[in-house]
Amino acid sequence: MENQTELYTLVLSGLSDLPSLQLPLFLVFLLVYLMTLTGNLLIVLLICTDSHLQTPMYFFLGTLACLDMGFSSVTTPRMLLDFHNQKRLISIQACITQIYFFLLFAMSELSLLAVMSYDRYVAICHPLHYTQIMHWKTCVLLVLGGFMISVVNSLVHVLLLLRLSFCRLNSLQSFFCDLPQLLLVSCSDTFINVLLILILAIFLGGGIFSLTFCPYIIILNTIMKMQSKAMRSKAFSTCSSHLTVVFIFYVTVFFSYFHPISKDNSAVDKVASVFYAVLTPLVNPLIYSLRNEIMKISLKRAVENL
After folding, report:
1. What structural domains and CATH numbers belong to the chain?
2. Domain G-protein coupled receptors family 1 profile: where (predicted)?
């Protein structure tokens, strides 16, 4: 069948069809988006300006903040526009573009969380060799490596999407273009696309998952062997923020992508999508700033110097 992706538009179902809720939802998510940008930008500025925070751990945290700003910006501005004009129409090209950047930032964040696990492993299990192992060149290469993997992963999915046809006006049961939802409304055979998702999820996703959680088996074993209660407390503190972020992100992503999609569950799916696509980038800076004493001291110092 001839590719017709350039001829058709899609309809995003949005979060609610009730006209009376459009303005309140617009104001709520506008506030969430502004808070997300402000919180993550503040973390980046603190790390760039405070010499006490210019270490590998905070370099990764600053990178995570940048990814969170990009991740949120892929979906939220479009959602705010739909609340405003209530048309919810999106072209196939724009939809595929949004999917590309959504997958790019999502995979980049997963890769970075795995890198941060390795950083905590080296810091706790090999503290005397930390500066030798985690020097700046290594940190930059680890971040760039994860980003390049994410670029290739997103590009492969998009190239396969471009071969599909969308031959009628369809509604996506979401407030943004999501890969599984888009495949459901295609009138082409999507077997190869679904197979690719499964293969990459098993090998690429499984590898990143293992690299994220396996170091914590060794970390926890090392922490339990520490003689000093203060050292154990400090080690647990540095790991707890990262584990909290990892847990929130993985739980919402697994719930959204690894259960059957149906119209009966569309409301639940939308809530899960809001959580990992909109709220997680807001929660991350709060978790790291509220649970990190050095960050709180740095913020207090910056406020006092204003």
Report:
1. 5-304 (1.20.1070.10)
2. 39-288
Tokens of 49: 């300006």
pLDDT score, position 3: 46
Find where tokens 């696309």 sit.
193
Alpha carbon distance 44, 285 (integer Å): 10
pLDDT, residue 261, reads: 54
Q: How far apart are the first and last CA of the chain?
A: 63
The predicted-structure confidence for 236-285, as pLDDT tens digits, reads as follows: 877 888 888 888 888 877 776 665 555 555 677 777 788 888 888 998 88
Closest CA to 124 of 226, 210, 29, 194: 226
Using a 10 angstrom Cβ sphere, with 0-12 exposed, 13-18 middle and 19 or more buried, the burial of residue 99 is buried
C-alpha–C-alpha distance, residues 165 and 191, integer Å: 14
Q: How far apart are CA 61 and CA 68, in angstroms?
A: 10
Residues comprising the chain, all counted: 306
Name the residue with tokens 């082409």: 188
* DSSP 3-state of 186: coil
Contacts of 16 (CB under 8 A, 6+ apart): 22, 25
CA distance 5 to 99: 14
Who has greater pLDDT, 296 or 291? Answer: 296
Tokens representing 182? Answer: 């888009």
Give the largest CA-CA distance in the chain: 69
pTM: 0.91
The percent of residues above 90 in pLDDT, for the chain, comes to 45
Let me know: does 25 contact 83? Beta carbons within 8 Å: yes
Closest CA to 158 of 95, 79, 78: 95
